[in-house]
Design a protein that fits this description.
heterodimer, A: 275 residues, mainly alpha, MetI-like fold, 2 domains, 13 helices, globular, B: 370 residues, Rossmann fold, six-stranded mixed beta sheet, 24% helix, elongated
């Protein structure tokens, strides 16, 4: 009897957190496909009585979200590409080579995340300004890449350390150069780790608000989080449009995560546990 | 195939000297075994041949080339690792073909060599499998096959059997010996298992603390160990050691352990005369101690009394754990012996087979004079 009660209480607590976490997302999705009269009804129903995709059409074509979506996608894809490439090579160097200050570097990789982002952005903004990269796609990509790199490095180095050195040595003895061994043996074995860091970089860049807020000025370079924030703080905000914008922002990253989830989990756990 | 020569090779890792003044010539087609306890430097020496470690001093020659600064891929060697080190994402076929593809051999040539190696090793039906679908013994064969297809100047084996179970190890030992005969290859093999060293090699190099202790054929090293370490390391069961004094008395050399005494046979006196008056270590292999009742006549006179503590019948022989005074030791006697635990027994020692070692030698170095 006691066990049943304990089990019930556990599930109730889980249900509470589940609802607390997922209800806003559910309500956002449901509101985005309701007509306005249902949204503003005195007692809105849990399930829409009528479904419409007008909000999506309006926000996509009339409010420029097609452009913001494109900007977010470009930023996320390039950040993912740069961060993954650089961190793969960097992690390989940390995992395999001996160099000065390696231990210090190894232990302080994540140190940058102890500093509030806003403090990092200010000097970053000044540097970009000097380089003439403010209000440019490249500036934003560089910013997001730099912020992703430490975590990507940390995950990948743990992952690469798990690959036995003997496999690589076997490739060297078999006739491979160091680069050949890296591309033909190490890289294929690192795919889960690489997917995990790619996914992380993509999602971080896709959802980035702060870097975009500081670096981007012009309307045509705005990303989705920036656009939604701008719309939400404007006049005559339509809940339907706002929620549709939210769905457009959330869904692509969510779909990508669901498709790649098993790689993400194995990549993080392999790297994180063994360090 | 080729000669491999170490000349005054040393390897240090910071302040740690892993290998010191290593001099060794591996002749063409020789099967040389580097044997010693963990941490003795044998794997480091092997890895220096492969190019996976760079010597701190000295030169390594493969064939006619000094290879110190050559990368592993240019040394024309093949290596079989302790953990097999197969490429997990490649099939057996591609594991074996990988080295040949890197060297841009033709597809036909690759196919021919892989088929040939797989036939020798019995891998014909496994070529499409991935390493995780193979047993330990099969993986070991694939690692061998990967080395064989390359037809290198020398094969390097780094404890390849240590991850196999005992039965498979015995089987693979025989197969490796057959392979050596078939390929007529130069093989340098590292192991900590003295049984592997004795049964497989044509030459054994015994190492300790980065130094070569002795180089010789298995029987040479077994019958004529140069120091106590080699005597205790080679041979199973381990040699019995007794601290003793060596006394020169009335023209005879007498070994005195305080609990028993023997006269050193005349033919051995010239070898040990220089140790007279000093403290020594007497070494007697368990199989050179017999039950006096069943011992051959020539050795019946050199006997000692012992109390039997443990009797282990092993079928064709019996292991007796006995005590003589302060000394506990092992004697291997014939199955016809009828001693029991707690009884006293008279044991006869084959004095032609005893060994004497300096008690505190200045260093345990390889003595090329022996």
């Amino acid at each position: 009897m006691g066990k049943h009660i304990k089990s019930c209480v556990t599930y109730l607590i889980l249900l509470f957190f589940f609802i607390g976490f997922f209800f806003p997302i559910y309500w956002m999705m449901v509101t985005s496909i309701r007509p306005d009269r249902e949204i503003y009804a005195l007692f809105p129903s849990w399930i829409p009585k009528e479904v419409t995709f007008e909000h999506f059409k309006t926000i996509w074509f009339e409010y420029g979200f097609s452009i913001y979506f494109k900007n977010s996608l470009i930023n996320a894809l390039f950040t993912m590409g740069f961060a993954t490439s650089i961190s793969t090579f960097g992690a390989y160097a940390i995992a395999r080579f001996r160099f000065r200050c390696k231990n210090i570097f190894d232990q302080f990789i994540l140190f940058v995340y102890l500093v509030p982002v806003i403090l990092v952005i200010v000097p970053f903004f000044l540097t970009l300004n000097k380089l003439g990269l403010n209000n440019t796609r490249l500036g934003l990509i560089i910013g997001c890449t730099c912020y992703c790199l430490p975590f990507s490095l940390w995950v990948l180095k743990g992952f690469l350390r798990e690959i036995p050195e003997a496999i690589e040595e076997a490739a060297l003895v078999d006739g491979a150069t160091r680069m050949q061994a890296f591309f033909r043996v190490i890289l294929p074995l690192s795919i889960p780790g690489i997917i995990a860091t790619s996914l992380f970089s993509f999602i971080l860049a896709w959802n980035d608000y702060l870097f975009a807020l500081i670096i981007i000025d012009s309307e045509e370079l705005k990303t989705l989080p920036l656009a939604i924030s701008g719309y939400a703080s404007g006049h005559d905000v339509s809940d339907g449009l706002l929620m549709a914008g939210g769905v457009i922002t959330v869904v692509p990253a969510a779909i990508l995560y669901l498709l790649m989830q098993r790689y993400f989990v194995s990549g993080l756990s392999s790297g994180a546990v063994k360090g | 195939m080729a000669k491999v020569i170490f000349e005054n090779v040393s390897k240090s890792f910071g302040v740690i000297e892993a290998v010191t003044n290593f001099n060794l010539t591996v002749e063409d087609k020789e099967f040389v075994i580097l044997v010693g306890p963990s941490g003795c430097g044998k794997s480091t020496a092997l890895r220096m041949i492969a190019g996976l470690e760079e010597p701190t001093n000295g030169t390594i020659t493969i064939g006619n080339r000094i290879v110190n600064h050559l990368p592993p891929k240019d040394r024309d060697i093949a290596m079989v690792f302790q953990e097999y080190a197969l490429y997990p994402h490649m099939s057996v076929y591609n594991n074996m073909a990988f080295g040949l593809k890197l060297r841009r051999n033709s597809i036909d040539e690759i196919h021919r060599r892989v088929q040939e190696a797989s036939n020798i090793l019995g891998l014909q039906n496994l070529l499409d499998r991935k390493p995780k679908q193979l047993s330990g013994g099969q993986r070991q064969r694939v690692a061998l096959g990967r080395a064989i297809v390359r037809n290198p100047a020398a094969f390097l084996f780094d404890e390849p059997l240590s991850n196999l179970d005992a039965k498979l190890r015995v089987q693979m030992r025989a197969e490796l010996s057959k392979l050596h005969d078939h390929l007529q290859a130069t093989i340098i093999y590292v192991t900590h298992d003295q049984v592997e060293a004795m049964t497989m090699g044509t030459k054994i190099v015994v190492m300790k603390d980065g130094l070569i202790q002795q180089i010789g054929s298995p029987l040479e090293v077994y019958n004529f160990p140069v120091n106590q370490f080699v005597a205790g390391f080679i041979g199973s069961p381990v040699m019995n050691f007794f601290p003793a004094s060596l006394i020169f008395d009335a023209g005879r050399l007498i070994i005195d352990t305080k609990d028993f005494q023997f006269s050193i046979p005349e033919k051995k006196v010239p070898f040990y005369k220089h140790l007279a008056g000093s403290e020594v270590i007497l070494g007697i292999r368990p199989n050179n101690i017999h039950d006096r009742l069943t011992a051959p006549d020539p050795i019946k006179e050199s006997c000692l009394k012992a109390a039997v503590e443990v009797v282990e019948p092993l079928g064709p022989e019996i292991h007796l754990y006995v005590t003589s005074g302060r000394h506990n030791y092992l004697a291997i006697v014939g199955a016809q012996t009828s001693v029991r635990v707690g009884q006293d027994v008279e044991l006869a020692v084959d004095l032609d087979k005893i060994h004497l070692f300096e008690k505190d030698p200045p260093n345990l170095r390889y003595n090329s004079a022996l």
